[in-house]
Q: What sequence folds into this?
């Protein structure tokens, strides 16, 4: 290809010729991207400002489109204006490593862009274009240089970026925005994803030495589309098939055939969601009351109602267009509503070595949100104004990704707990209504946030006074509607409205014993001593703390204050021996 290569020693050293690499690696024909390729060809063939920025989420196939264009140019199948061009991909990481000084970098890039401009046959391919337009993330700002050389057709640029960075660094920059024409690349459809995977099956079979039946590919597309909503096609299907092939080779009991159940196993490992109702999951669902009642005291009726609703939801596993399940927990404070949510998360989503203590960790980016591996918790009393909504769903004007949007994207499988939902702004309740109805919402950047793999639990103290006065109050949803606390549309979207009763003193005795056991374990881990609290002392603590309107909240505070204060004095006043029993 000497006829197409000018004298470009700097570019030859710090870039890769995509046409050559595409040809050598036998790039396959891509599926249903002719429109995007044609659009890029048209822009590059313009008389002036013939520069392209390709915008799409990670994993939609932006690089593949550029590779396909490079191969098309190499094979001479493009128009006359592009037939002598070559596409060179810059190696930004190498340049930043070799040129540490900012001034050196700017001078080097000036030489590089001038060399590309003088060659007249070069199209620079810049991956992550935003890194060249901001000192914040790329350690270099080439806005002036790109604008200087990019106005004429002597230098042409193809840049790649995501919608977020396009809005932040390109659309808002008048000079750069005018210089580049935008080409949007969206996720391929299931039909096209199926074609892409079928075209790659032979390569997977050859590499892994396995056989991939057609029904496995169909299952792959269907299941990855439903469960891996945060990764676009075709990336998620390719990655899932690759892992399933590896699992097949590790399982030596079959004939190296990638059966659909291997797809299910990989998905369950990635998501901790029971993709199919295995015997273990069936047993868990059948014994759900026992599992939850062992952790939640004196709420047997509530647990029975919850368990029945969860069983109904899991019967439609993989077919629902809504969240996995959704519930509204009603009752006074401190009766076990939040603890039930933690127990549900632990029962359905935790791995074998997950301990209950993990379900109370605070994350460092916001105090009013707490999360564990599979529990995301929001205190809705912090979102009582419509001006608080962008904090949750994001705001493009401030580049705030949104706490709710971010949390669900990072933890798309598990329990979303919305505490004190009655305090949330009315417009925010409408967003949750959409989530309960459609299984997704649109964030402040116009992106879809999928919630189909979440169990959504909202808690409310709204009817607690009425429940306290009349524990057998009939038809509590009607009470909430009559008092205009929630709308009928909102309440009817939940799979179940679960009512928790005020705690009695005998129940508080059992709860107190559990609390003391937890404190005892913590003390033993630190000082290797045991603590012993008599039943009379426990009853005395309960008498002091009991108030049916506040459940176990007062009790927990009283126990921690009384026991920990006493222990602190004992341990500080005299040394304790390992294995010693301290009676309180």
A:
């Amino acid at each position: 290809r000497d006829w197409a290569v000018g004298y470009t020693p700097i570019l030859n050293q710090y870039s890769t010729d995509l046409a050559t690499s595409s040809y050598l690696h036998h790039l396959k024909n891509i599926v249903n991207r002719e429109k995007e390729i044609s659009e890029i060809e048209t822009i590059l063939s313009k008389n002036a400002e013939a520069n392209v920025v390709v915008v799409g989420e990670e994993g939609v196939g932006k690089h593949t489109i550029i590779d396909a264009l490079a191969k098309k140019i190499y094979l001479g199948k493009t128009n006359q204006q592009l037939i002598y061009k070559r596409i060179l991909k810059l190696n930004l990481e190498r340049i930043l490593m070799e040129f540490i000084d900012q001034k050196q970098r700017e001078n080097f890039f000036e030489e590089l862009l001038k060399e590309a401009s003088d060659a007249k046959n070069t199209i620079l391919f810049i991956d992550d274009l935003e890194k060249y337009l901001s000192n914040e993330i790329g350690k270099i700002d080439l806005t002036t240089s790109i604008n200087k050389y990019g106005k004429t057709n002597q230098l042409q640029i193809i840049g790649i970026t995501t919608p977020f960075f396009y809005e932040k660094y390109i659309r808002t920059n008048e000079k750069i925005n005018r210089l580049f024409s935008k080409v949007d690349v969206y996720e391929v459809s299931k039909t096209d994803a199926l074609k892409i995977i079928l075209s790659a099956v032979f390569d997977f079979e050859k590499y892994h030495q396995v056989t991939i039946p057609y029904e496995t590919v169909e299952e792959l597309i269907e299941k990855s589309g439903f469960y891996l909503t945060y990764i676009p096609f075709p990336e998620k299907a390719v990655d899932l098939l690759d892992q399933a092939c590896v699992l097949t080779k590790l399982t030596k009991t079959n004939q190296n055939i990638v059966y659909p159940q291997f797809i299910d196993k990989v998905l369950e490992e990635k998501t901790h969601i029971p993709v199919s109702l295995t015997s273990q999951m069936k047993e868990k669902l059948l014994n759900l009351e026992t599992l939850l009642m062992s952790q939640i005291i004196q709420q047997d009726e509530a647990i029975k109602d919850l368990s029945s609703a969860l069983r109904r939801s899991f019967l439609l596993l993989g077919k629902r267009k809504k969240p996995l399940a959704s519930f509204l927990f009603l009752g006074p404070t401190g009766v076990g509503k939040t603890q039930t949510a933690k127990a549900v998360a632990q029962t359905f989503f935790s791995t074998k070595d997950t301990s209950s203590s993990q379900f109370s960790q605070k994350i460092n980016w916001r105090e009013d949100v707490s999360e564990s591996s599979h529990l995301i918790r929001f205190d809705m009393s912090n979102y009582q104004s419509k001006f608080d909504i962008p904090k949750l769903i994001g705001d493009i004007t401030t580049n705030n990704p949104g706490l709710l949007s971010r949390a669900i994207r990072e933890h798309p499988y598990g329990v979303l707990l919305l505490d004190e939902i009655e305090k949330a702004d009315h417009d925010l309740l409408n967003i949750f209504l959409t989530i309960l109805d459609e299984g997704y919402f649109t964030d402040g950047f116009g992106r879809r946030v999928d919630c189909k793999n979440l169990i959504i639990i909202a808690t409310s103290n709204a009817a607690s006074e009425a429940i306290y006065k009349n524990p057998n109050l009939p038809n509590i949803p009607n009470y909430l509607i009559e008092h205009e606390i929630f709308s009928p549309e909102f309440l009817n979207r939940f799979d179940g409205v679960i009512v928790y009763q005020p705690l009695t003193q005998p129940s508080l005795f059992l709860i107190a014993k559990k609390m003391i056991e937890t404190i005892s374990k913590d003390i033993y881990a630190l000082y290797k001593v045991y603590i012993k609290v008599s039943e009379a002392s426990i009853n005395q603590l309960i008498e002091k703390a009991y108030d049916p309107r506040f459940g176990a909240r007062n009790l927990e505070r009283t126990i921690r204050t009384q026991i920990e204060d006493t222990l602190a004095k004992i341990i500080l006043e005299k040394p304790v021996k390992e294995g010693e029993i301290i009676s309180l």
User: Anything to note?
Assistant: The two ends are 88 Å apart (CA to CA).
